[in-house]
Amino acid sequence: MKMCFANNRVAWYLPILFSLSHGSALAFQDIYEPDDKLEQAHVMIVGDNKRQQHTLHSRTDEDWFKFYAKANLRYDIRANPVGADIDIALELYDSEGNRIFTEPKDEGIEGEEELFSSWQAPSEGFYYVKVSDVAPSSESCRLKIQYELRISGLAPVFDGAIKGVVTDAISGQALANAIVYSGCNKNYPVPSFQDGSYHLTSEAGVCELTATVNGYKPLTCQIHIPEIFSIQRNMPLLPDNETVQAPLLSKTVYHHGDTLYAEFKSVGLPPQSCIRYYFGIAYPDGSFFIITDLNRIEPFDGNFLAFWMGQQNVIMDKPIGDDMPRGEYQFYILRMPEGIDDPFNNLDNGELNVVAFRIE
To answer: How far is CA 308 from the centre of its chain?
Structure first.
């Protein structure tokens, strides 16, 4: 017969303390609650070695997790270590909620490791793991109820890492469940979390980084991933039915002495973004200038196109003087993925928009 408290004086006090301050039903909930159904599943990253400790705080508690898998690749799903007072059962479901795999019945031994070994994903997409306690109901002692879950794939050893946030490029809203992968590690993509964040391991070198999510245009940029160190690249995605917004002007007709004010609404500024913005202004005489920071206007030499280096979305905020003659102007914005060395001759890879104004 198992004795709950005989070998540990502290165990006498913990349930009393928690029940007085939080209510006994919530005493041993982990920080990932609520995760009691498929729709509340916590995202797991394949190959992530970060320790996550979970609990089955009651006999009826279920914990749900989801991970993104590639077709025909094999994955290990492992619960270990497991507390001595619970007997873990693992079940695997598809994105429709259909159970597709159940762990073979064990001998009902509490504290034993549970494992799906070399499970092969039938198709690419999200899969869900349900964790529950099948220890005999006659057992009244449930103090050691922690477990750790890991999901791993047959991936190479990676020596670089990328992290960032996936967002709506217009509103800045975080995008959850976006799929992010590196061309150096395309077989093991990761989903973004509820706050849009992602963390991806990859081989070092020059790699393509891609983010996709339903309802948005995919974004692919080329970046250099250093060895050992982690870099940040935010991924602002344009909705399917949107293009980059033209700069917003305070007027369409200006006079000398007026203030020319222009800004843009897109999010994701360098240097931590996978996107580069280029701003140009065409004068009435046909000359063309680029704008690299607030009010910084430089002649374009026809070869090198410098991207926006400003840390804000205001492009111009300056009085119109004699340096801006009367006539028709064109204000351009070019949104281009990072890594394209010659954006001027690769406009098809970006998003271009223009707005006109006049100085009288």
So the answer is: 24
